[in-house]
Amino acid sequence: MPPLPPGLHFLERGWFSANHVLLTGGEGPALVDTGHFRDLEATEAALRSAGVHPEELQVIVNTHCHADHWGGDRHLLERSGADFACGEDTADLFTRRDLRAMWLDYFGGEGRYYDLDQLPPKIHRTFTPGETVELGAFRFEVLAAPGHAPDSIALFEREHAVLISADALMEGDCGVLNVAVHGEGVVEQALDTVARFRGLGATVALPGHGPPIADVDGSLDALERRLLEFQRRPDKLARHLVARCIVTSLMAMQPMARGPVLDALAAGQWARDYAPRLGFEPGALVSRTLAELEGRGVVGEDADGLLVAHVRR
After folding, report:
1. Cα–Cα distance for residue pair 17/68, rounded to 1 Å
2. Are strands 299-302 and 204-207 parallel, antiparallel or unpaired?
3. Considering only CA atoms, which of 113, 117, 93 is closest in space to residue 105?
4. CA 95 to each of CA 65, 69, 98, 112: distance values in angstroms, whole numbers, following the listed order
């Protein structure tokens, strides 16, 4: 991977808590995305490993409205006194506490999956696609990046050709597309985002989950193929979402005995939304998909119950 410029730090997490991008220099440290509220200690440790104490932050930015990206907001804002910024659409969702658009009703269980008290208490600035913003010592172009989340923004630093893609581009993939909440057009929106990213000439992309992407064009090609397949096969997209929801839910609950896990998963809004699309009752869909994940080695079981195997939390 091409080296990142001094002052731009990529802090990789797992798949339950989003990655962070830390920008230093300029008017002080800025942090893009704060991870999950249950992982605050690890978030602070990641900042210190990059040479920044949490109370030194001057600006905190969220790329979109999902709780694995904003779960540390209030804690870090109150600790540092930093300003908070996000895209205009994200600010609207936060202000209205739109739980469905934020997918919070998809997982339920405030205190396990999310904590509304961690939402930013005040929005100091909203970013508009097309404008340029200064974070740390860097100037970023703000890009609309809908698909996984209609409100999502990305940030492009042109001098070093670095794209902060959040969940709009991961390694050959993107964050799951939720047509039940956002409509069938999300696949087309994601394809438009791919086209927008292609025109940038980025040499490295920093995703919301997973490692940095050195072959940006190759990842965009792979993502486009996946999206076109989802466009052709809506059932495949639905199965992909169900599998992702099960894995994410297990990360929050694990370890837990099989019976309670199956009951909790089948009660999820995502199961009730997607089971009819695939011709199943929620419980049957969950049982079948969980068995597939166990067969692939993604989910395992020990004496304490089911857990996600071989995936960093």
Report:
1. 5
2. unpaired
3. 113
4. 11, 16, 8, 22
Q: Record the tokens describing residue 150, joined without a space.
A: 């209609």
Q: What is the pLDDT of residue 1?
A: 64
Q: What is the pLDDT of residue 313?
A: 58
How far apart (Å, rounded) are the C-alpha atoms in residues 7 and 5? 6
- DSSP secondary structure code for residue 116 in this structure: G
Q: N- to C-terminal Cα distance for the chain?
A: 24
Give dist(CA 144, CA 186) in Å, integer.
13
Cross-sheet strand order for the sheet of 30-32 = 8-11, 20-23, 30-32, 59-62, 83-87, 125-127
Task: Check residue 52 and give its pLDDT.
Answer: 98
| pLDDT at residue number 312 | 59
Sheet holding 153-157, edge to edge: 132-135, 138-144, 153-157, 162-166, 204-207
Report pLDDT for 53: 98
List alpha helices for 20-63, DSSP H.
40-49
Query: Which amino acid is located at 136 in the chain?
Result: G
Residue closest to 7 by CA, chosen among 39, 36, 30: 30
Distance, CA of 61 to chain centre: 13
Place of tokens 């989910």: 299
List helix spans (H) across the chain: 40-49, 67-70, 73-80, 88-96, 104-107, 179-182, 186-198, 216-232, 234-253, 258-266, 269-278, 282-295
Instruction: Specify whether the CB–CB gap between 142 and 132 falls below 8 A.
Output: yes
Beta bridge partners of 141: 132, 156
Tokens of 277: 């699309």
pTM of the model: 0.96
Task: Report residues of the chain scoring pLDDT below 70.
Answer: 1-2, 310-313
The tokens for 255 are: 């370890």
Crossing angle (nearest 10°) for helices 258-266 and 282-295: 130
